[in-house]
Amino acid sequence: MGEAATTFADPPRTAPMKAWGSLPGDDPERDRAEMEAAIVEAGIDLDPAAPGSHRHAEGEPADHVHPHQHSAPGEPPIIGIVGAGAVGTALGIALSRAGWPVHAVASRDAARRERFRSLVDVDRVFADPEPILDEVELVILAVPDDVVPVLAGSLRLYGGQAMIHTSGALGAEVLAPAMAAGTQIGAFHPLVAFADTERAVAALQGATVAIEGDDQLAAMLADMAEAIGARPVRLAPGTKAAYHAAAVLAAGGVVALLDAIAELGRVAGLDEAGSLAIYGPLIEGTLGNARALGIRAALTGPMTRGDVGTLQAHLDTLQAHAPTVVDLYVAAAHREIDLAVARGALAPEDATAMRSVLGAALQARLEPVP
Predict the structure, then answer these.
(1) Cβ proximity of 155 and 130 under 8 Å
(2) Are residues 247 and 220 in the same domain?
């Protein structure tokens, strides 16, 4: 990244000291114990490391002192990743291979910490996230969505540091509780399915990464996305949830659809591999048509023809052999009818007749079996 985007200084940080009452002085041992307890409660280290250094990395002796690190002007920031699951590990591998130094990782799962360390040339490994703030310039929270606000509320950045999360649904503002003067927050969401680590790392090549942050941080995150082979996009404010919902349909939604297709394939005597072999090319062809012709023009099938008889036959066999697929089929059919009407391929009266058949199928699905 350019020099203008490298502003991750690391000024010293002081712990706030709580006030305590005056000591009576009539029992020196008790008074000393109470004072020491108050100092500990205030968060003051009675045996501190040298200024600008700290202790407590996993696997190091108690008296190990490690100095803060800083990136040179024009170089990538020193990175720490909180979370060693699928996303954090894949990002750690991709960033490290791209020459962006991943200096530290934190995870409460010992097995995940060790796996991360075996895959990424990381210097420091922690069980808790707090020590990472003493180590790095850019903190990446690669944790489940529900954990992000909790973590942000428990951490406090140093001036000059930045924190980002990898959530596709949450905005950068959820990190605001972690901010201090001179800090930055943002988001970095790779639009990749993280089912397998190496496949996810490979999929980052050409993938889209949605970034958030002020202009300076966004420029650095764009550089980071490009370094791992991805394409950065900056979303309009307030659109993150819609963007992510579309991503869920494109990933998990397609998997749900494939599972429904495989269930129907089993009725026809096909195993899962057979269903994918038969219907996979049809799916790929439909996607190709949508790219070449547009989504509406790519629509084919009984809903474009007003073929009520075929629709009824489908619903009857679904009710008999794959009842759990009915809801999905009906929902997709309603959307197909909307598209066919908008395209002018389906007359309004035919659309009404088809919707009536779909409604009856849903009603039958809801009625209790006698």
Answers:
(1) yes
(2) no
